Amino acid sequence: MPRSFLDRSLRAIGALTALAALTACGPAPMPPGDTVADRGEVQNRAFHQFNVGLDRVIVGPASRGYGTAVPQPVRRGVSNFAANLSQPSYVLNNLLQFRIGQAAQNTTRFLINSTIGLGGILDPATAMGVPALQTGFGETLHIYGVPEGDFVMLPVFGPSTGRDTVGLIVDIASNPVRVVLPQPESQYVFGAEVLDRFGDRYELSDTIDSIYFESADGYAQLRSLYLQNRRFELGGGSTLIYSDPYADPAASDAAATDSGFADPYAGPYFDPYAQ
Question: Within 10 A of 210 (CB to CB), how many other CB atoms are there?
């Protein structure tokens, strides 16, 4: 990736962070759990229907084909590899959030899995007590006081908010792995992320199908689930441990409890498209 692209990405991060710093000096107050600002609901519902149609025609069948043809250990390796490629982006945002301890943890995890984990295909870091701490520029904006904004349904990417949509754009543009890797290696990153999404869709097929095709109002249900999950993540003072559809549920629940971020009111659903 050209050096000028890296410079533009870093300048964009600096500008947005400075803007956030000017708006407030602390995390944005969380809106009440049942408050939904959705002034673009008509357009959002149209995009939701587009996503449902895309899932019915392409994403769902492709994920079933991938999940059926590819053995679970291989899918797990792809998921591990894609997750490992996200670690540098987490570290960058940890530093912008002044969370040095979390930056150190995510850096340690990346180094462990990139070396003895065979480039991230294996996940020895978790077994060694170094779980991933997900974050993104949307959370960075929240810490600097930028309000949530309206609910937004994005084509392909799914539910978001105004703040998290900006965060998504910055995260994609500034991911250190995408910036550093040359062509065609950077395309392998994209391919791994797509396969990882197909794997998630396959593992969560019952949940997603119930929302998309069985709910009386799938849009309203998905909006509620996303906002509750996202507000819980940000309200906990830290991000939740990485939600892994391949992980043992009992082990995941125990890890969340040990971390102090377990949600006693959590339902059977979580948002597979969450940032």
Answer: 14
